[in-house]
Amino acid sequence: MLRFNRWVKPAFLLKRSLYTKTTLNAGGIEIAQPNPNHKSLILLTTPPQLNNIVSNVIDKQATNTGISQILVVCVDSIADSRNAYSELWLETPFRVTHHETIEERNERIKKKVEPLSVDPIKFDKSWKDTKEQTLFQINLTNLGLNSKVRLANTLFENGENSTCFYIGKESYDWYNLANVTVDVNLDNFSAVQNIEYANRLTEIPLVEAVEEGADEELFTITDFEGNLIKSINNQSASGYLTDNSIVMSSKKDLYFKLYDNETEDPTRPCLQEYYKLIVGGLGWGEKQAFLAVDPIVGTTGFRDVKLFYYDKDTAKHHVESPVVSGNSKLVFECSELESGYEEYKQPTDTGAQETVIKPGVFAMGCEQGFELDGIWHRSNGEFVQIEVAQS
Q1: Are strands 235-236 and 383-390 parallel, antiparallel or unpaired?
Q2: Kind and range of the H or E run holding 374
Q3: Which of 357, 311, 273, 338 has its CA nearest to residue 77?
Q4: Of 12, 14, 49, 154, which has the highest C-beta tally within 10 A?
Q5: For residue range 56-78, what is the model confidence (pLDDT) as tens digits?
Q6: Average confidence (pLDDT) over 253-271
Q7: 200 C-beta neighbours (distance < 10 Å), count
Q8: pLDDT above 50: residue 311
Q9: Angle value at C-alpha 284, between 281 and 290, nearest 5 degrees
Q10: What percent of the chain has pLDDT over 90?
Q11: Is 369 left (phi over 0), alpha (psi -120 to 50) or beta?
Q12: Over pLDDT 70: what percentage of the chain?
């Protein structure tokens, strides 16, 4: 669990063992070792920058012997950009505690076909790939923070379903990894200064006709099975939607917030849980009295619920560099869905996309969300930003 430490030493008293930087819309790759003590690099990139990043890393390995280890990970987005790369430089080496190559992953999930089976053989690099079977996990050990994201699809860039590789004189150097877990010690950066959370969800009342001045009614799951909600307040779960004119007249994605009204900490919104409602083929009628939420929930439990919808009119949260020089922001986001191919290339109202450098920012995002301390955040536009300082 994330630990807070509010007391911070002045930056000029300590050397900076951590260096972070994010570059958006780069015309070229400029990755420079901050100082000779920064020998470890975790480098995140989005697919459009992948091939340039790989070329740069190859050049660095050939010319710079001062870098002892590099991990390259391709993700969907970085700081709300589909065309970016992000650097995390460390003095203390990070540890790869688990890895699985693409080949090992494919063998593990391969469908077992009997010799006389009539099942067709399918090309294994289709666009609908095995993204759910990829994972980049980074454990920030001195913060007590664990995070996970899925890898991006890189089929159009290099013919691989995903791309992640390590260089550091290990047996798996340069192998394409489907799963990798790293333990990172940020050294003296252990003071959490601030946590920001945002999403693009708007609440809908579960019951519309509420008398003015009446106490707010609490809605609790009273029957469930796994991720299936059968009843709420002992009434058919689906009835709350079929009787709701706002829901029935809208085609927006719906989400349930699952929480405990008595123990929820309103000061820690990054721990709140929102799960998308999955509508089956039978709709919300009498034949399907239950509601299904994202299976990643595991089991809903007898928790309290609130109803939300994804609201694209809600302003996006933009990542800014730390106000205090020397601090770093760690940013996790559930990427917005692209509305068109290579949308990132489209000019803005002010002209062509300009290169933007955000010092002090290390960011990662995935369309399928991210996990922090065991909680998945999977509503597009959901965002957690943690600012750390030297302690």
Answers
A1: unpaired
A2: none
A3: 338
A4: 49
A5: 998 887 677 789 999 999 999 99
A6: 93
A7: 21
A8: yes
A9: 95
A10: 65
A11: left
A12: 82
